[in-house]
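tool=predict chain=A
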Amino acid sequence: MDEILHTFPSAAQHERIAVALERLANAKASPEYLDAYCGLLMDGTNTTAVLRQWWPLAAYDTPDKYERLSRFAAMAAQAWDGKVYTVRGFSSATADHAMTPLDDLAGKGKAVLATDTAPGAADWAEEDPMTWYIRANAVSKQDGTMDIKAIEGEPGFDITGETAPVYTFALALWRREVRDGSYTTKSWRTTQAGGFRPYAGDVAPDGTKRALTWHPTFGGALNSKGNLTSGAGRPLAIFKSALQGLEAARKWNAYEGLWCDCDTEWLLDMWQLRHQDKENSAILEGCTTYNYQYQVAVAENGVSRVLVTTVQGANFVAGSTVSVGDHSAASNRDRGQADMRNLADQVQITSIAEVSIGETKYTALNLDLGGKAIDVPAEAWVSTMPWHTGSTERVPGHKDGCLGNLTIGKYPLRVAGVEAVDGAYAVGLDPLYNVVAGSDGTHWTYNRVAVCRDSENLAGTIGAGYEDTGITFTDMPQGWQYVKEFAQNNDGVIFPSEIGGSSTQWYKSAFYGSDGAGVRCPWRFAILYDTASAGLAAGCGNLAPSALAWFGAPRLSGAGKKRGEWPA
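tool=predict ok
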């Protein structure tokens, strides 16, 4: 039993639950009685402990792991029946970004933000059924469910995503959003009530609500077979367009898809529920200001490091990703240039050390080159790059947070079990935008925002597999536009309805308006030098499905890849 799950509740809780369930097992309790009894044991601090002991007992009646986890989610939802967690924020008429907790959320306080060196106090959000989660390896099925291979803590669980992508599974909540002119109020329940709807991504293809929601835990990377996966310890799959990313995702099977707005909507909502603020900027910043490119200070041969000045070296952090290139024959230092990456491409800094050559001190960036050595000419440059996946695994437990300083802007973040803002856009194909000319050469009209409810129909054009949402924006200025409000809809779409905000108020994030006509796809969160424009609510609407760059990585999608429609 000890290896079944990586858990956080106390030993006393485990022992009490284990004794109770042992009695039930000896009594050969029915599945219904087992679930009802376990539901009564849940108190908001022990959800993982209950799962730990319940999981093997439930396997006798429910061997399929997706069905079993869904069964547990339904049990936990019933245990929290009647509770309502609410946050209220100002409407776009008021600049304030803070949100007020109401109903059963009042008094809980904001969820803890932790780092690898500052674990923080006890956190209600880790074990509360409304915010609890568990990771698992899984691949998609045609019916919209998942083939779960192993849950977190089982012997077969693979955090690297080599055998199957890692997803974060949680209870699929009921949601209500009310905009009354002065305020926007969002409320969540675990069970149905009047005025509450499922998230768009949590409606199964047959129109029923799922008990579970799931979202890829890590940014998009490739496994050894070239499959687009979600797993820790891998370089991001940059330089791949959305269409190429979809091809790599479908190497698992025909049902996989790319990050969609259903994923973004859920993640942004979970931030608001946990931290009572519209958006994460300047609170848990993410990797948005880690943009350094330096010519090496000393040429060396046969080394696994680069030397920079001590002043320059102070800007780097161990564990981050860099590229090194012999730049002797060119002047363009864009990271997309081959000679900026031809000596070492997307390698991690294993450690940073002070070294002396003669009487001069330098900073050595020691690199993970897989045991190889490189010659570093005097004309070489080193550039920061989007992080490898999995840095947030060093954040303790299931807390939100990042490595190092929360607001310095150098580290990817974790929210609700999902790592994001890793220095590269998360690239997807749902929705697609159709852009036409606006009133002049600097304004463009988004005359159609279309969603794809079935990953098998994802494409680079707005064809029969896409459905119009009715969302439009006339005369969007090209370039970054700070968002005041997003369009209210039931399609899981995150698209601006009002712009003209700022980096410190409203949503604190920006949307990049197109500079030309054509079909565009969403690039989410922004990159390692977008600074004030970046965040969980940020997006770029300027790039076509065929576009690729060093700052974009296609990412797998969650439950929304196969979804139906909830009755109006």
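The first helix runs from residue 11 to 26. The longest strand covers residues 344-357.
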